[in-house]
C-alpha cells in the first residue's frame, strides 16, 4: 500500500452513474494494481448516461461494466477483460461486460408429487398444438390422480403457437412440458454413438432413425415458472428490472417488498414494469420475480352496487367483497363464429338516440364531443334506463376528479341504478398503471356477465385520458412516439379492449356485452388521431356539437354526423314505424332554415316543412337524467312526426309533452300498455293516439309570451290566429 501512494502510481479514470464508495475504490485500486503489475489510483467522474461503469486503462483500452449482467458472470468477465487489456492487442469494443451469451432461462427439475401436492383444486389445464384424443387425456388424468392421491381433472385447450408438443399447467406457478424433441434427441444421439462404427448405409441410417422416432414416448419435464431479477431504476410509477429474459408481456411481477407490477416494455437487456402501488419501499438492487400469470380481478354479483379501484379492491368503505371468481383483465375477443348479429335493442331512454341512432346489445357505440357538453350524462342516462331490465352495468372513471365521481355516485344512488351498477375508479393522483388497466378491469367484469348468458353494459369514461396515460408511461419507458406524440400501437391498445364487446352465439349462452366508449375532442375536431382511431373500431358514433349545446339543445347530438351501423336492426318494430320519417324531417328543416335566415320568401309547403322540422327538433330535447320508457317515447314521437303538434307554439312543446304523457297515463292506461307490449303500429292504435292527443290539447292552455324571441323560426311567420289553439 506504501508503493501505491507514490506519485508514480498510474491514474485510471472510472466513469459511473453514481459516486463510488471509498471502500469500493480501494478494492478496485488493489485488484487492478495486481492485474496490471503496478500501483494505480482512481479518479472518479460521474456520468448519468453510463449504464453501469467504465474503467479507462488508456486512450485505446477500456472496460465496460454492465450492471444488468448476472453478478458472477460480470465478475468473471471483468477479471478476464482487465487481464486482456493489460496484455494489449485488444480493441476497446471487444472488452465489454454485458449479458452477451449468458443464458437467461433457468429450468430446475422438481418432483412431480411435490408439485401436485401444492396444487389448489382438482383441475389442471393441458395445452397442445393439435387436438388430443379423449383417451389420452383420460390416461393422463389417471396417471396424475395416482401420483397425487386424489382425483385430478384435465381440461383441454388447443394452442397452435406452442413450441412444445403440449404443456400441462399445474396451477399458476408450475407447468409440465411434454416435449418429444428431448427424448428423440437423447435416443438418437445415444444410438448413433453406439453404432457409429457399424458402417450403416444412408438408407439404413434413415430407417433406423425413423424407427427410433416412432417408438419414442414424450418425456416429462417439470419447470418452475419463476425467474428472479433485480431493480435497476424506479420512479414515476415505473421500474426497470434486469434478469427476467423470459417474462411475458402483461405478466404480473412481484417485488421484494410484496408490491406488484406489470411487465409492460420487453427489451433485450431489461424489462419496464408498471407499478401497481407505491414505489417508496422499492429500492434499486432489490429483488423481483415472475409470477407466471396475468393480472386478475374479482368478478361476480357481489360487486354490484360497489365502488372499486382498478384491481377490484373496494374503496367505498362498505367492507370486503367475496367474489364469485377471479378473471384475467385481458383475454382474446370472441371470434366470428362465436358471435351472432346484433338484433336486440338496448333502450337508452333518450328520444333522439332511440329514434335516430339506436343501440343494440353487443354493440360498440362511441360518444364523442368537446368537454362539458353532456357526454357523461348520456352514458349515465343509459345506465339509469336499465332499471327494469336484465342489463348489468359497469361504469369506468379514468382520471376523473373525485368530486365528479361523487356526483355520479349520488345520481345513480338517487335513481336506484347503483343496485345493478359497479363503478371502477382510477383517480388522477394514482399511479399511471391504475389508469391504464381500469378499462380492462371493467371489461372483465362485464365479460363475466356475458359468459354467464346475461347482458352487460360497460362505459369507458374516457378513452382520451386513457390514451394520454398510455403516452405518459410510454414516454417514461423511452418508447418511440408517433402521430400527435401517441405511440404507434395505441390503436391496438383500444381495439383489443373494444372488440371484446359482442353478442355471443346461442351455443355459448347468447349473452352480450355492450360498450360505450367516450372520447373528448378539441374544438370539435373529430378527425384527430384518437377520435378517428376509436371511430374506426366502433359500430357507430354519437357526435355532440358545441354550437347546438350553446343554443340550448339537450342532448346536443349532431344528427348529420351521428350514425349507428346496426341501425333499425336494433329497434323494435314499433319505434321503427314511429320514427321512420323523423331524420328526413330534421334534414329538410336544417337545409331550408338556411334560406329563411336570409329573408327568403317561402311557399306554404316549405313553411309546413319548417314547422314540422322545428317542432321535431324541439320535442327531441330532453331534461337531464330523465330517461323515458319506450311507450312514452313512441307516443310523443308519433304525435310530432304525424303533424299532431304543428298547431302548437314551439315554446309550449316541452310543457305539452309532460302534459300529454301524464294525461295518457292517468286517463288512458290501456293505451300505454298497448304501446309497451305492441310490436307494430296498427290503424286502431294510431286512431287511439290521435284521439288521446286531441283530448289532451283541448285541456291544454297555451302560454302567450310577450317577448317575440321566444317564438321559433316557423312561428315567427305565422300569425296568432293561425295557431289554432285557444288561449
Write structural notes for this entry.
This protein has five domains: 3-97, no CATH class; 112-224, no CATH class; 228-294, Elongation Factor Tu (Ef-tu), domain 3 (Beta Barrel); 298-571, P-loop containing nucleotide triphosphate hydrolases (Rossmann fold, 3-Layer(aba) Sandwich); 577-581 and 599-722, Lysin (Up-down Bundle). Strands 18, 20, 21, 22, 23, 24, 25, 26 and 27 form a nine-stranded mixed beta sheet that branches. The protein is of the alpha/beta class. It contains 21 helices and 27 strands.
Q: Top keywords for this entry?
A:
Elongation Factor Tu (Ef-tu), domain 3; 727 residues; nine-stranded mixed beta sheet; disordered N terminus; 27 strands; six-stranded antiparallel beta barrel; 5 domains; elongated; alpha/beta
How would you concisely characterize the structure shown here?
The protein has 727 residues and is α/β, with parallel strands linked by helices. Strands 18, 20, 21, 22, 23, 24, 25, 26 and 27 form a nine-stranded mixed beta sheet that branches. A six-stranded antiparallel beta barrel has the order 11-12-15-14-13-16.
Amino acid at each position: 500500500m506504501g508503493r501505491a501512494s507514490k506519485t508514480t502510481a498510474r491514474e485510471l479514470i472510472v466513469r459511473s452513474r453514481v459516486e463510488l464508495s471509498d471502500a469500493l475504490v480501494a478494492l478496485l485500486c488493489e485488484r487492478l494494481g495486481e492485474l496490471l503489475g503496478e500501483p494505480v489510483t482512481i479518479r472518479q467522474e460521474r456520468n448519468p448516461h453510463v449504464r453501469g461503469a467504465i474503467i479507462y486503462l488508456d486512450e485505446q483500452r477500456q472496460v465496460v461494466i454492465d450492471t444488468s449482467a448476472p453478478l458472477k458472470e460480470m465478475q468473471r468477465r471483468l477479471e478476464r477483460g482487465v487481464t486482456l487489456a493489460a496484455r494489449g492487442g485488444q480493441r476497446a469494443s471487444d472488452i465489454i461486460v454485458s449479458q452477451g451469451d449468458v443464458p437467461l432461462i433457468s429450468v430446475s427439475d422438481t418432483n412431480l408429487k411435490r408439485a401436485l401436492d401444492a396444487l389448489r383444486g382438482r383441475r389442471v389445464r393441458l395445452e397442445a398444438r393439435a387436438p388430443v384424443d379423449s383417451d389420452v387425456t383420460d390416461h393422463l388424468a389417471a396417471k396424475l390422480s395416482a401420483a397425487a392421491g386424489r382425483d385430478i381433472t384435465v381440461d383441454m385447450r388447443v394452442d397452435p403457437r406452442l413450441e412444445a408438443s403440449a404443456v400441462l399447467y399445474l396451477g399458476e406457478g408450475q407447468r409440465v412440458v411434454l416435449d418429444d424433441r428431448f427424448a428423440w434427441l437423447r435416443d438418437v444421439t445415444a444410438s448413433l454413438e453406439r453404432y457409429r462404427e457399424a458402417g450403416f448405409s444412408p438408407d439404413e441410417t434413415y430407417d433406423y432413425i425413423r424407427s427410433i422416432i416412432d417408438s419414442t414416448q414424450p418425456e416429462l419435464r417439470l419447470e418452475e415458472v419463476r425467474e428472479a431479477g433485480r431493480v435497476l431504476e424506479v420512479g414515476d410509477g415505473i421500474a426497470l428490472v434486469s434478469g427476467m429474459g423470459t417474462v411475458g408481456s402483461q405478466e404480473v411481477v412481484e417485488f421484494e417488498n410484496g408490491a406488484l407490477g406489470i411487465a409492460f416494455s420487453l427489451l433485450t437487456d431489461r424489462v419496464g414494469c408498471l407499478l401497481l402501488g407505491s414505489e417508496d419501499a422499492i429500492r434499486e438492487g432489490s429483488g423481483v420475480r415472475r409470477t407466471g400469470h396475468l393480472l386478475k380481478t374479482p368478478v361476480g354479483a357481489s360487486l354490484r352496487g360497489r365502488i372499486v379501484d382498478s384491481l377490484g379492491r373496494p374503496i367505498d368503505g362498505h367492507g370486503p367483497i367475496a367474489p364469485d371468481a377471479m378473471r384475467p383483465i385481458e383475454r382474446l375477443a370472441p371470434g366470428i363464429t362465436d358471435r351472432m348479429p346484433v338484433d336486440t335493442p338496448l333502450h337508452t331512454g333518450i328520444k333522439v338516440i332511440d329514434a335516430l341512432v339506436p343501440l343494440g346489445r353487443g354493440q360498440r357505440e362511441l360518444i364523442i364531443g368537446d368537454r362539458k357538453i353532456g357526454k357523461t350524462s348520456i352514458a349515465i342516462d343509459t345506465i339509469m334506463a336499465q332499471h327494469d331490465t336484465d342489463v348489468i352495468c359497469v361504469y369506468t372513471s379514468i382520471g376523473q376528479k373525485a368530486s365528479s365521481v361523487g356526483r355520479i355516485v349520488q345520481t345513480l344512488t338517487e335513481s336506484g341504478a347503483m343496485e345493478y351498477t359497479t363503478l371502477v375508479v382510477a383517480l388522477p393522483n394514482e399511479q399511471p398503471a391504475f389508469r391504464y388497466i381500469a378499462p380492462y378491469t371493467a371489461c372483465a367484469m362485464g365479460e363475466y356477465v356475458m359468459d354467464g348468458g346475461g347482458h352487460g353494459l360497460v362505459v369507458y369514461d374516457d378513452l382520451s385520458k386513457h390514451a394520454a396515460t398510455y403516452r405518459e408511461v410510454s414516454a417514461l419507458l423511452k418508447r418511440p412516439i408517433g402521430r400527435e406524440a401517441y405511440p404507434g400501437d395505441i390503436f391496438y391498445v383500444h381495439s383489443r379492449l373494444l372488440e371484446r364487446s359482442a353478442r355471443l352465439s346461442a351455443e355459448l349462452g347468447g349473452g352480450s356485452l355492450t360498450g360505450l366508449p367516450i372520447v373528448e375532442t378539441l374544438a370539435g375536431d373529430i378527425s384527430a388521431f384518437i377520435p378517428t382511431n376509436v371511430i374506426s373500431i366502433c359500430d357507430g358514433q354519437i357526435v355532440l356539437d358545441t354550437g347546438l349545446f350553446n343554443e340550448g339543445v339537450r342532448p346536443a347530438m349532431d344528427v348529420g354526423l351521428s350514425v349507428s351501423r346496426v341501425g333499425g336492426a336494433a329497434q323494435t318494430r314499433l319505434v321503427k314505424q314511429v320514427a321512420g320519417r323523423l331524420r328526413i324531417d330534421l334534414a329538410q328543416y336544417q337545409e331550408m332554415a338556411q334560406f329563411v335566415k336570409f329573408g327568403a320568401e317561402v311557399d306554404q309547403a316549405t313553411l309546413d316543412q319548417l314547422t314540422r322540422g322545428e317542432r321535431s327538433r324541439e320535442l327531441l330535447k330532453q331534461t337531464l337524467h330523465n330517461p323515458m320508457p319506450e311507450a312514452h317515447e313512441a307516443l310523443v314521437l308519433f304525435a310530432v312526426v304525424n303533424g299532431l303538434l304543428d298547431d302548437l307554439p314551439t315554446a309550449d312543446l316541452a310543457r305539452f309533452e309532460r302534459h300529454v304523457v301524464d294525461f295518457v297515463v292517468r286517463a288512458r292506461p290501456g293505451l300505454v300498455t298497448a304501446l309497451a307490449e305492441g310490436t307494430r303500429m296498427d290503424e286502431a292504435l294510431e286512431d287511439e293516439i290521435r284521439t288521446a292527443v286531441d283530448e289532451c290539447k283541448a285541456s291544454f292552455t297555451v302560454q302567450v309570451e310577450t317577448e317575440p324571441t321566444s317564438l321559433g323560426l316557423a312561428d315567427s311567420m305565422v300569425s296568432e290566429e293561425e295557431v289554432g289553439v285557444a288561449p
